Protein backbone atom coordinates (compact mmCIF):
# COMPACT_ATOMS: atom_id res chain seq x y z
CA UNK A 1 0.00 0.00 0.00
CA UNK A 2 1.30 3.45 -0.83
CA UNK A 3 1.54 6.10 1.83
CA UNK A 4 -0.91 8.98 1.84
CA UNK A 5 -1.93 11.83 4.12
CA UNK A 6 -5.26 13.02 5.49
CA UNK A 7 -6.10 16.18 7.44
CA UNK A 8 -6.88 15.86 11.14
CA UNK A 9 -7.80 18.73 13.46
CA UNK A 10 -6.75 18.49 17.10
CA UNK A 11 -8.98 20.49 19.44
CA UNK A 12 -8.07 21.69 22.92
CA UNK A 13 -10.07 20.86 26.03
CA UNK A 14 -11.71 24.30 26.19
CA UNK A 15 -12.57 24.17 22.46
CA UNK A 16 -10.74 27.49 22.02
CA UNK A 17 -7.52 26.23 20.45
CA UNK A 18 -7.20 23.90 17.50
CA UNK A 19 -4.68 22.98 14.88
CA UNK A 20 -5.12 21.09 11.61
CA UNK A 21 -2.30 18.81 10.53
CA UNK A 22 -1.69 16.90 7.32
CA UNK A 23 -1.07 13.49 8.91
CA UNK A 24 0.30 10.32 7.35
CA UNK A 25 -2.19 7.44 7.56
CA UNK A 26 -0.30 4.58 9.26
CA UNK A 27 -2.29 1.39 9.86
CA UNK A 28 0.80 -0.12 11.50
CA UNK A 29 0.75 2.48 14.28
CA UNK A 30 -1.55 1.85 17.23
CA UNK A 31 -2.13 5.50 18.16
CA UNK A 32 -2.14 8.84 16.41
CA UNK A 33 0.85 11.05 17.07
CA UNK A 34 1.57 14.75 16.73
CA UNK A 35 4.59 16.89 17.57
CA UNK A 36 4.62 17.68 21.28
CA UNK A 37 4.78 21.44 20.65
CA UNK A 38 1.54 21.22 18.64
CA UNK A 39 -0.24 19.33 21.40
CA UNK A 40 1.04 21.79 24.01
CA UNK A 41 -0.17 24.80 21.93
CA UNK A 42 -3.63 23.26 21.72
CA UNK A 43 -3.60 22.66 25.49
CA UNK A 44 -3.47 18.87 25.65
CA UNK A 45 -2.37 17.48 29.00
CA UNK A 46 0.13 14.61 29.28
CA UNK A 47 -1.54 11.74 31.10
CA UNK A 48 1.19 9.12 31.34
CA UNK A 49 4.13 7.53 29.57
CA UNK A 50 3.77 4.40 27.45
CA UNK A 51 6.28 2.07 25.81
CA UNK A 52 6.23 1.98 22.02
CA UNK A 53 7.99 -0.41 19.69
CA UNK A 54 9.32 1.26 16.54
CA UNK A 55 9.53 -0.37 13.10
CA UNK A 56 13.25 -1.02 13.61
CA UNK A 57 12.53 -2.94 16.84
CA UNK A 58 13.72 -0.19 19.19
CA UNK A 59 11.51 0.47 22.24
CA UNK A 60 10.96 4.10 23.29
CA UNK A 61 8.76 5.89 25.81
CA UNK A 62 6.52 8.84 25.01
CA UNK A 63 3.73 10.68 26.80
CA UNK A 64 0.14 10.26 25.68
CA UNK A 65 -2.97 12.35 26.20
CA UNK A 66 -6.62 12.39 25.26
CA UNK A 67 -7.61 14.90 22.61
CA UNK A 68 -10.75 15.71 20.69
CA UNK A 69 -10.04 15.25 17.00
CA UNK A 70 -12.06 16.12 13.94
CA UNK A 71 -11.89 14.45 10.54
CA UNK A 72 -14.33 14.99 7.70
CA UNK A 73 -16.72 16.92 9.97
CA UNK A 74 -16.88 14.21 12.66
CA UNK A 75 -15.47 14.67 16.19
CA UNK A 76 -14.20 11.91 18.45
CA UNK A 77 -11.96 11.67 21.51
CA UNK A 78 -8.73 9.83 20.71
CA UNK A 79 -5.45 8.92 22.36
CA UNK A 80 -2.51 10.86 20.94
CA UNK A 81 1.22 10.38 21.42
CA UNK A 82 3.36 13.44 22.15
CA UNK A 83 5.77 12.83 19.29
CA UNK A 84 9.20 14.28 18.61
CA UNK A 85 9.57 17.59 16.82
CA UNK A 86 10.27 17.49 13.11
CA UNK A 87 8.41 14.21 12.56
CA UNK A 88 5.20 14.15 10.52
CA UNK A 89 1.97 13.55 12.42
CA UNK A 90 0.47 10.07 12.05
CA UNK A 91 -3.12 8.80 12.09
CA UNK A 92 -3.01 5.37 13.74
CA UNK A 93 -5.34 2.38 13.87
CA UNK A 94 -7.07 3.43 17.12
CA UNK A 95 -8.18 6.69 15.50
CA UNK A 96 -9.30 4.97 12.30
CA UNK A 97 -11.45 2.60 14.35
CA UNK A 98 -12.87 5.42 16.50
CA UNK A 99 -13.92 7.31 13.36
CA UNK A 100 -15.15 4.11 11.63
CA UNK A 101 -12.81 4.67 8.70
CA UNK A 102 -11.03 2.14 6.52
CA UNK A 103 -8.17 2.58 4.09
CA UNK A 104 -8.83 2.42 0.35
CA UNK A 105 -5.31 1.53 -0.87
CA UNK A 106 -6.14 1.91 -4.56
CA UNK A 107 -7.55 5.43 -4.33
CA UNK A 108 -5.33 6.29 -1.33
CA UNK A 109 -8.13 7.69 0.78
CA UNK A 110 -10.15 6.97 3.90
CA UNK A 111 -13.64 5.55 3.47
CA UNK A 112 -16.50 5.04 5.94
CA UNK A 113 -16.93 1.49 7.24
CA UNK A 114 -19.18 -0.40 9.64
CA UNK A 115 -18.35 -1.19 13.22
CA UNK A 116 -18.17 -4.85 14.19
CA UNK A 117 -20.14 -6.25 17.11
CA UNK A 118 -19.73 -10.01 16.88
Q: Your description of this structure?
A:
With 118 residues, this protein is mostly beta strands. It has a single domain, classed as Cathepsin D, subunit A, domain 1, CATH 2.40.70. It contains two helices and nine strands, in the order E-E-E-H-E-E-E-E-H-E-E. The chain has helices at residues 36-42, 93-98; strands at residues 5-11, 18-25, 32-35, 48-53, 59-71, 74-83, 90-91, 101-104, 109-112. The strands form two sheets. Strands 1, 2, 3, 4, 5, 6 and 7 form a seven-stranded mixed β-sheet that branches.
Low-confidence stretches: none
What is the β-strand count? 9
Strand content: over 45%
Radius of gyration: 14 Å
Number of helices: 2
CATH architecture: Beta Barrel
Structural class: mainly beta
Element string (H = helix, E = strand): EEEHEEEEHEE
The overall pLDDT, averaged over residues, is: 94
> What is the count of structural domains?
1
Distance between the termini: 28 Å
Oligomer kind: single chain
Q: How can the largest sheet be summarized?
A: 7 strands, mixed
Helical content (DSSP H or I, runs of 4+): 10-25%
Q: Looking at the structure, what is the overall shape?
A: globular
CATH fold annotation: Cathepsin D, subunit A, domain 1
CATH level 1 name: Mainly Beta
Let me know the CATH homologous superfamily.
Answer: Acid Proteases
